[in-house]
Structures are given as structure tokens and as C-alpha cells.
Amino acid sequence: MSSELSERQAFLVLNALPNIGPIMLNQLLAEFGDDPCAILNASRPELESVKGVRPVISATIGAWREHIDLAREEERMAKSGADFITTRDAGYPKMLKEIHDPPIGLYRRGRYEFGAPCVAIVGSRRTTLYGQATAKKFGAEIARLGFCVVGGFARGIDTAAHEGALSVGGKTAAVLGTGIDLIYPPENLELYRRIETESGAILSEFPFGRRADRQSFAMRNRIVAGMSDAVVVVESDVDGGAMITARFAGEQGRLIFAVPGRIDQGSSAGCHQLIRDGATLLTSIDDVLSELNYLEGLRPQPVAEKPADVAAGRPANLTADEAKVFECFRVGAILSSDALTAQTGLSVPQLSATLMMLELKRLIAKRADGAFEARC
What we know:
Blueprint: H1 7-16, H2 22-31, H3 36-41, H4 44-48, H5 55-62, H6 70-80, E1 83-86, E2 105-109, E3 118-122, H7 129-144, E4 148-151, H8 157-167, E5 171-175, H9 189-197, E6 201-204, H10 214-226, E7 230-233, H11 241-251, E8 255-258, H12 269-276, E9 280-281, H13 285-291, H14 308-311, H15 320-327, E10 334-335, H16 337-344, H17 348-360, E11 364-366, E12 372-374
Parallel strand pairs: 3-4, 3-7, 4-5, 5-6, 7-8, 8-9
Antiparallel strand pairs: 1-2, 2-6, 10-12, 11-12
Helix pairs in contact: 7-8, 10-11, 15-17
């Protein structure tokens, strides 16, 4: 009998049922006294008395055991170290409860409980070095102020933002468009582990084994926007997934920021469109703080500063000359050899050797025009 299930198990079953979206699940909960067990125990006529519940939905709920192997799902959770948090748990993101279609529960790895406000940083998978550097810089600065940096764990901007938050010991949350057991993109395995173990959280509303598709990514984007006080778009073309996240943010009443880019670069076209449509142009962390001034008095506690070299974003194990040259790129500058010679005072042979070592260490890259820019 469904009545033998605990409330959390009932939430888990309902969340995993196929072809029943969060809007319908929230409507059913409202009609059945916010009791998930009552939904699973209801007869088909009782279920179909709820507006929008068709026979196929009532049949799915009534035969939930044919769709969900609860014991297997719980075993997978135990083996992976995941838990399932519902809207009634303290660890469920508070802002997410306010949207029109919040997930009734989230799988979570890592134990961060979202005690601080969240700011999302999203953008293109096909990004420029400038975009990556900017996302990493803002991720670090926002996290250092005590906010949790939220992203979609995608290649490019999202990855850089997560890495930036971790680089200063800050909080970051990755929302997946797959089941929590599937790591996509696969090259982010180490990042996945770091987020989970370094006081962050991996989140997904999808059951184990769910693979990504266009619908799942859109559903993920609504969560990224919904759990955040503000959404920052760093680079996106006009049809990019980050634009979907920004649209959700607008619908949910969240603040939207966009970082400007080159006018001849497609990866900045989406940001420029957002700015034309009323998003706040973002050039420094002060722009975020001035718009979030309603949080005054509730602003999270800043993260403790790291030693100077780390806090400044300078990699360890650099020689004095390498550190001097790398420092020139801190604000995303694109510099020629002549400009670097003038700024550092190094001789041409010294500078050439230093640039070569920084390239080998994958800290800078030489552009087609012969100038240099930082990789991160």
C-alpha cells in the first residue's frame, strides 16, 4: 500500500513519475492537502476530479510501482552519497519555492543548504578567452562576498564561474540537466567532485539515469534562474540557452545583468540584446551590489581572504618574471609584446622566454594578431 511509504518516499515517487510535470504535481499537492501519500492512495476518480488530470495521468499514479523501482532508487542514492530534499526541508533553496512551477524535490550531492542568497552566472558553451576570464573573475568576486554562485555546469561560461567561486573558497551550486549520476560534460568530472566536497552542492530534479535532452536543459535553466536573486549573462548568442535562463529570470521577477562584448562577435549578440531590452549593463561587481541594495543588512558574510597571491588570482609556482607578466593580464587585457615590455621593464629576450613559459603552462594564449591574453 502507498500508505506504507514515508512522506519523503512519496515525494520521491511522485517526482520520478514519467510525463507528469511540476505544475501538475504542485496542483495535485494543493488539492490533496499538501500530502504526497494522499495522492498515491487516491482513487482514479478522485485524481481525475482535479482540473487537468487526464486518465493517462491518473493511471500512471495508480500504477506507480510499474514505473518506479523505489528500492533501487534509494539504493542508488545511498551508494552515490546523494539525498533527496523536498520543499519542506531547510536545505531546499528558498527563492525556488516562489516560482510558478518549483520542483517538488531535488536530488542533492554535497551538503550546502543555501543559507546565503544566490547569484547565477551563465553563458555560452562556445566562449572566448575574454568570456571565460570574465566569468571566472565575477564568480570569484561574487563568491568572496558570501553569495552562492549558481550555474548549469555546462562547458564554457558556467564552468568558469564555478571554478572562480571555488578558487576563493566560496560556495557554488551546479544544477544538472541530467540525472545526478550522469556527469556531463565528462571532462568536468574533477569539477563535479570539487563542488560536492568543497562545501558546494550538485542538484538535479531528474531521477537516476535520466539523460539530457532539449526539455531537460530548459527545465534546468528555470531552476538556475528560480533559485537566484540575480542572473548574470556573460556571453551568449541570441538563441543560446543562457537567453532562456534570462527569460525565466524576467518572468520570475529576478534581476538580470549582461556583460557587454565586441559588437562584431556573435557570442556577445545575446548580451547586447538583453541590454537593449532593459537588462543592467555589468562592468564590475559594484553594479551587482548597487542593484541588490535591498539586501543591505541581510548580505551574506564575506568569505575569509586567502593568502595574497591566491586571492589575487595569481597561480602558484611562478617565477618573479612570470608573475610580473601574468599580473598585466588580471583585468582581461589583450597586450602586444611591445606593451608588455613597456609595462614590465623586461628585456625582449627575457619577455620572450617568459611568455613562452606562460604559454606552456596554459596561462596565456597568443592570438592571431600576435597579441596575448589570459586563458583564465
